[in-house]
Write a structure and sequence with these properties.
Carbonic Anhydrase II, 13-stranded mixed sheet, 32% strand
Length: 255
């Protein structure tokens, strides 16, 4: 999950969530990456604010083992997503869509506003050791600062109409938001029909690796066409953090 959250950091650090937002657009070049001397194993050494990337005990992504999942009577995810004008950013780490206000998901009566959508290749999370070719992270924030991420696995298959609009308008340069007001998208189009999920408490998957993020990992993938995946791959052939230790966290799954 990218640094969309860094700009939000100042607003919510007092609420105990230091690190919800991404880079200041147009600021200095990224100080971290997904490989080499600034890759995931080095993140904690790059900046004192990144210490949780190494010291944290609830880091994401994880490899979910079905045999360790506690089955529970979990609430449905109630989606109220509305169309949003396409606002897209290549932030130097991922392709991110900034979503317009007034779209949300409700869980147990609590409302989480959809803030952004980010894409990773390959998919970051795994189940029983198996990953997916890509993943979309739908990032939400409640009024109390709590962050919720819905991870949608993406496999090769039918073309996705939402992603069709995104890849047709990929930014030519990194750093600044590109507004395409003539184009709107609805995040509902990224979701598979089957919305069963795994739920656990984790972290952002990029620096500063802030914890206490609620993760809902959908069990069934949505699909992108081979061409759509290739378009992302030409921009970011690999922008995924490796899986992190589970550390005996409770993972609950719908039946």
């Amino acid at each position: 999950m990218k640094r969309f959250f860094d700009g939000f950091l100042v607003m919510i650090v007092g609420a105990g969530f230091a690190g919800f937002a991404g880079p200041s657009l147009g600021a200095e070049p990224p100080t971290w990456s997904y490989a080499g001397n600034t890759g995931p194993t080095k993140w904690a050494k790059l900046n004192k604010e990144y210490q949780l990337c190494n010291a944290g005990t609830m880091q994401s992504p994880i490899d979910i083992a079905d045999k360790e999942v506690r089955k529970g009577d979990l609430p449905a995810l109630l989606f109220n997503y509305k169309p949003s004008p396409l606002r897209i950013v290549d932030d130097g780490h991922t392709i991110r869509v900034n979503y317009a206000p007034d779209s949300w998901v409700t869980v147990n009566g609590k409302r989480y506003e959809l803030v952004s959508i980010e894409f990773h290749k390959p998919g970051e999370g795994k189940v029983n050791g198996k990953g997916h070719e890509m993943e979309a992270n739908l990032i939400h924030k409640a009024q109390d600062g709590k962050v919720l991420v819905i991870a949608v696995p993406l496999d090769p298959g039918a073309e996705n109409p939402v992603v069709k609009s995104i890849v047709a308008n990929l930014p030519a340069s990194k750093g600044s938001e590109q507004a395409v007001n003539a184009v709107s998208i609805n995040a509902l189009g990224l979701l598979p029909k089957d919305k069963d999920y795994y739920m656990y408490t984790g972290s952002l998957t990029s620096p500063p690796c802030t914890e206490n993020v609620i993760w809902y990992v959908l069990k069934k993938p949505a699909t992108l066409s081979a061409d759509q995946m290739a378009r992302f791959g030409r921009v970011y052939p690999m922008n995924a953090r490796p899986t992190q230790p589970r550390n005996d966290r409770d993972i609950i799954g719908t039946p």
